[in-house]
């Protein structure tokens, strides 16, 4: 069933999207403000994936690049729509709807910006079910929809159409090289598909899930209930039904470096009353990838590792991690279509050069 | 103790190392004379319109309570909410322009996005988008356009702008365009116009950095006025010790720093109050309610230090990215106006004019203090002047105050775990001895001057901000060397070596430069040598 999203939903959606960003995906605040400015008092039609006509033409849009760049070099405003228009022109077909490529972080909101600017509806689904650092890390790609052709653009309005056929890794490399040249951040339109493709390849109802996570946190705070129980309750009826508290403590060390356009690093956490020796460790590449407690694996990609404020449950990004912060780390299970062997080949541990094999968080942390 | 009792042949007693801690709130100016951790004297006086004469009065009052030699005073430490109050109440703000350098990028979210309209009006904001800015790797987004800036300067001049904030995209990595744009604008504008450059104020994240820079710009005139007044007052009393102001993190800054960066004092009030409360109660973990004349500030102390906000912090409704204590302010204080029909309190306040405006002091404005006196919670002024108030109305207002404060603490704590509540500040008399949901309130000894005690335990710090090459394997060595340098600089700034600790380590990798170039900021703090508590 379709529903209407208004300005009043944006703060909850942004907070939920930050949670699903698992430390990355970029600060949704910027996206929130962009949509708010464009939407005014209007509303956006959100389509449930089950209701889509088989031949509905959907063009997803997103930003790609470094989150650090996106909060510093802000959009001129036209970029995502410009990318979508160029891809429409390339296909010779007008989009009936747009959709997130990534439901975690700022990219959950970019299709809504286009919707607010044009009135296009947005499909309640995405291709990552979280945030990932690469365009090829998509359930769309895993289940047979190609990223090609892709339209890229930036603030000057220059556009590039790339087509690598079925090679989704190659298009990632080319698009990323172009993104660096465009200033570290670009708007893209890609993974054009039909309504039937969406049902087959997308992670369903992730916009509404982000909204319900954000709402749960807000309402729990207002009613002085535990926001962590509220998050678990919000996720229980979804495809992300297992939530585990992995650690409670303080950040004692954060190490970052930039490699190949990605922010890689590690954070060490310790119990709040201990000396500066990390008992808990998180490795990240834009997003949190893997977590160890006393050297033991407790959660690993693609399952969600979410670092949040110890008391308020406000999501904390890998960029926002700072020495001394009091945090709680939550592990969240992912839907079955994100854990198949072919999905794990694309965005499981091996795709990030990790030696561990994937074990579901609900089997690791009790 | 008087000189007359000391025979001339006896050597003078060893010089004492005293500190004067002063907290200037919107309503009261509190002062303490400290010797180590001992409070020798503590006084509360009214804040004056000029801020500084109230400080003079408070110092004289300290002297009357406990005589001291001017030469024994090693430091005068002042915490003031003056600047943040000016912002919250949108007064004494300079007409301010903000120029963002970065077109064609960034136009979708222009400067002052998300600012409250009232504040935009209060600073007579002029907003300009101009060409300039850098990419993340140092390439220009577009070159500065001097003619564009000159045209904007002409508009500023016509609008009577007196302070200018400049924020260029990626200026924390390359500040040259902000400086160059300031040069161009300076040549076109009257001499008194001040410039605040974003790379000196904040960190990456242009909206938050720009917001903080605009706030700083709007406060520059007030900063100069206040610091001149302070120096004149303190020197006029014969005290030659250095004057410091408290910063957000509790460390001290000198006069010149205040002039340029008044925004750095923003959260010093809550920081001092919370640290002072912890100091006087001995509680390592507690919620602190500091009720002043205009606002009640609520925060949490964990392990003796204020809990820090996780990410961006809203100040007067404006998002910034300072490291600040996590504090919420609600508009309830001793000077808050009380609506005689709705029984609502604040956010408007008579502020420092409490002792002339409040009914109990002979004025004609119904304030929260009047209600507290009428309800028997406070003994102040002339109770006969509030005897006419309907007891049912008084009870309603008091219940409303308790309820709103309790709600705010409860929102702050979020965890259902019980937490002790410590009430400090001159307006704490507004509160009952227990709060709904939270139970008994602890009122520490010297509660009325906890802010001043907090100011007096302030520390000095040093910040290293540098670009270092960090390659695999070298990080620990590099960081250790920088930490050592930060500690050495804190000691050079006057910190007692035994007390210096690293407060903050922040690394920003600079992408695509060879050799792992990383911007590293390290902050070390310690107690002032010779006057440490």
UniProtKB/TrEMBL annotation, chain A:
Organism: Mycetocola tolaasinivorans
Every S-Me-THD-like C-terminal domain range: 167-361
UniProt protein name: DUF917 domain-containing protein
All copies of domain S-Me-THD N-terminal, residue ranges: 9-163
Family matches, as Gene3D superfamilies: CV3147-like, CV3147-like domain
Family matches, as SUPFAM superfamilies: CV3147-like (SSF160991)
């Amino acid at each position: 069933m379709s529903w209407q999203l208004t300005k009043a939903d944006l703060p909850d959606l942004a907070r939920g999207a930050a949670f699903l960003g698992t430390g990355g995906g970029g600060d949704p605040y910027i996206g929130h403000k962009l949509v708010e400015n464009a939407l005014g008092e209007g509303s956006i039609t959100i389509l449930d994936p089950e209701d889509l006509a088989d031949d509905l033409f959907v063009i997803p849009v997103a930003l790609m690049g470094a989150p650090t760049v996106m909060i510093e070099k802000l959009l001129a405003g036209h970029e995502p729509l410009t990318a979508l228009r160029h891809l429409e022109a390339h296909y010779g077909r007008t989009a009936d709807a747009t959709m997130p490529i990534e439901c975690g972080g700022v990219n959950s909101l970019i299709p809504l910006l286009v919707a607010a600017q044009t009135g296009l509806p947005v499909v309640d689904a995405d291709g990552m079910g979280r945030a990932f650092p690469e365009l090829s890390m998509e359930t769309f790609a895993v289940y047979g929809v190609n990223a090609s052709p892709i339209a890229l653009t930036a603030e000057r309005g220059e556009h590039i159409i790339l087509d690598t056929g079925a090679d989704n890794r190659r298009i990632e490399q080319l698009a990323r090289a172009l993104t660096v040249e465009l200033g570290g951040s670009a708007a893209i339109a890609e993974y054009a598909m039909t309504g039937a493709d969406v049902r087959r390849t997308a992670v369903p109802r992730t916009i509404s899930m982000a909204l319900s996570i954000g709402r749960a946190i807000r309402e729990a705070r207002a009613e002085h209930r535990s926001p962590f129980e509220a998050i678990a309750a919000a996720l229980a009826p979804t495809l992300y039904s297992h939530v585990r508290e992995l650690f409670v403590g303080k950040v004692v060390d954060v190490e970052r470096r930039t490699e190949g356009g990605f922010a890689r690093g590690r954070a060490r956490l310790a119990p709040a009353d201990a000396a500066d020796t990390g008992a808990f460790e998180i490795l990240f590449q834009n997003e949190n990838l893997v977590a160890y407690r006393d050297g033991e694996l407790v959660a690993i990609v693609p399952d969600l590792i979410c670092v949040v404020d110890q008391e308020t449950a406000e999501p904390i990004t890998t960029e926002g991690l700072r020495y001394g912060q009091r945090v709680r780390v939550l592990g969240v299970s992912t839907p079955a279509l994100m854990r198949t062997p072919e999905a794990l080949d694309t965005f499981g541990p091996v795709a990030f050069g990790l030696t561990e094999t994937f074990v579901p968080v609900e089997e690791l942390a009790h | 103790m008087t000189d007359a009792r000391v025979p001339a042949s006896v050597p003078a007693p060893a010089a004492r190392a005293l500190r004067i801690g002063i907290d200037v709130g919107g309503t009261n100016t509190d002062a303490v004379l400290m010797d180590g951790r001992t409070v020798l004297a503590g006084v509360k006086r009214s804040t004056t319109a000029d801020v500084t004469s109230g400080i003079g009065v408070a110092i004289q009052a300290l002297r009357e309570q406990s005589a001291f030699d001017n030469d024994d005073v090693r430091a005068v430490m002042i915490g003031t909410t003056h600047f943040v109050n000016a912002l919250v109440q949108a007064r004494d703000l300079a007409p301010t322009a903000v120029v963002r350098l970065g077109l064609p990028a960034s136009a979708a979210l222009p400067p002052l996005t998300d600012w409250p309209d009232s504040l935009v009006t209060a600073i007579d904001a002029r907003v300009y988008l101009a060409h300039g800015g850098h990419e993340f790797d140092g390439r220009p987004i577009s070159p500065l356009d001097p003619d564009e800036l000159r045209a904007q300067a002409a508009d500023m001049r016509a609008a009577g702008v007196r302070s200018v904030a400049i924020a260029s995209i990626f200026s924390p990595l390359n500040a040259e365009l902000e400086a160059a744009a300031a040069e161009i604008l300076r040549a076109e504008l009257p001499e008194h116009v001040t410039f605040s450059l974003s790379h000196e104020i904040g960190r990456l994240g242009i909206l938050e950095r720009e917001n903080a820079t605009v706030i700083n710009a709007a406060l520059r005139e007030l900063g100069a006025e206040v610091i001149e007044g302070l120096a004149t007052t303190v020197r006029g009393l014969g005290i030659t010790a250095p004057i410091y102001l408290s910063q957000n993190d509790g460390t001290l800054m000198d006069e010149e720093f205040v002039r340029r960066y008044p925004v750095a004092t923003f959260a010093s009030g809550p920081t001092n109050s919370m640290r002072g409360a912890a100091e006087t109660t001995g509680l390592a973990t507690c919620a602190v309610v500091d009720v002043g004349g205009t606002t009640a500030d609520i925060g949490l102390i964990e392990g003796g230090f204020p809990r820090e906000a996780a990410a961006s912090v809203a100040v007067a409704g404006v998002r910034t990215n300072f490291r600040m204590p996590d504090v919420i302010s609600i508009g309830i204080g001793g000077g808050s106006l009380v609506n005689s029909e709705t029984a609502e309190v604040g956010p408007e306040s008579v502020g420092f004019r409490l002792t002339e405006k409040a009914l109990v002091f002979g004025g004609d404005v119904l304030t929260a203090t009047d209600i507290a006196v009428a309800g028997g919670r406070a003994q102040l002024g002339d109770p006969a002047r509030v005897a006419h108030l309907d007891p049912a109305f008084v009870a309603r207002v008091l219940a409303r105050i308790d309820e709103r404060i309790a709600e705010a603490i409860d929102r702050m704590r979020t965890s259902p775990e019980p937490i002790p509540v410590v009430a400090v500040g001159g307006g704490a008399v507004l509160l009952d001895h227990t709060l709904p949901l939270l139970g008994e309130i602890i009122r520490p000894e010297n509660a009325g001057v906890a802010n001043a005690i907090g100011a007096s335990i302030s520390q000095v710090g040093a910040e290293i901000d540098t670009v270092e090459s960090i390659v695999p394997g070298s990080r620990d060595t590099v960081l250790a060397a920088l930490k050592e340098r930060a500690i050495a600089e804190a000691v050079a700034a006057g910190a007692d070596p035994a007390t210096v600790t690293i407060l903050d380590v922040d690394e920003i990798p600079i992408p695509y430069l060879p050799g792992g170039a990383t911007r590293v900021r390290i902050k070390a703090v310690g107690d002032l040598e010779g006057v440490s508590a």
